[in-house]
Amino acid sequence: LEASGCESLGSASGSEGDAEFAEGISLPDMDLELLHDPEDELLCASLMDEVQATLCRAPLGSKRCSRLLMPAQLQAQVRTELLRLACSEPCGLRGALLDLCVEHGKACHDVGHIAADPAVVPTFQLTLVLRLDSRLWPKIQGLFASGPAFAPLKLSTGFRVMKKKLYSSEQLLIEEC
């Protein structure tokens, strides 16, 4: 594993009792909290900071930028989902390539691409699709023509994540949250 640039999530010196216990339980049945790597937790916090910085300079129109505000509840939900999707990957979250998109009406705008760890060859790609808060959008849509260059917009707590393994021909996984 050292040659691949990834660190092992498990211990090579586990007891036989641990092995017998693990054989009787399938991965989906195990508590996902047990599978989280502490390094992934730190990396995820850094990744969420980078996501927020990318959203702050997101170009939603051809000439205008908008500061997109990510509510705390949305940050927590996205963080949990990223960690959950990374726990089954060979390099954990370090192997993630994150494409960040924002739905704006019926259009989906690409606002950034982030490598979780640029030193690691990506093993999976996540496309995170965030949505503008639909309760606010119709009320402020007309303000864009004469509004400030960086009008703050709040994101909805709903989002969609698509996961594509880059080392496998498995089907695309799409999750709506």
What this model shows, in words?
The protein is an alpha/beta fold. It has a single domain (38-165), classed as Ribosomal Protein L22, Chain A. The chain is built from four helices and seven strands. Strands 1, 2, 3, 4, 5, 6 and 7 form a seven-stranded mixed beta sheet that branches. Strand 6 and strand 7 (173-176) form a beta hairpin. Helix 2 (38-56) packs across helix 3. The longest helix is centred in the N-terminal third of the chain and has 19 residues, at 38-56. The radius of gyration is 19 Å and the shape is globular. The protein starts with 15 loop residues before the first helix and ends with a strand. The relative contact order is 0.16. Mean pLDDT is 74; it is low at 7-33 and 142-147. Belongs to the DDIT4 family. InterPro entries: RTP801-like (IPR012918), RTP801-like_C_sf (IPR038281). Pfam families: RTP801_C (PF07809). It is found in: Cytoplasm; Mitochondrion. GO terms for molecular function: 14-3-3 protein binding.
Give the helices and strands, then pairings.
Elements lengths: L15 H8 L14 H19 L1 E2 L5 E5 L2 H15 L9 E9 L2 E9 L8 E9 L4 H4 L9 E16 L7 E4 L1
Parallel strand pairs: 2-6, 3-5
Antiparallel strand pairs: 1-2, 3-4, 5-6, 6-7
Helix pairs in contact: 2-3
Protein name: DNA damage-inducible transcript 4 protein
GO molecular function: 14-3-3 protein binding
Keywords: Apoptosis, Cytoplasm, Mitochondrion
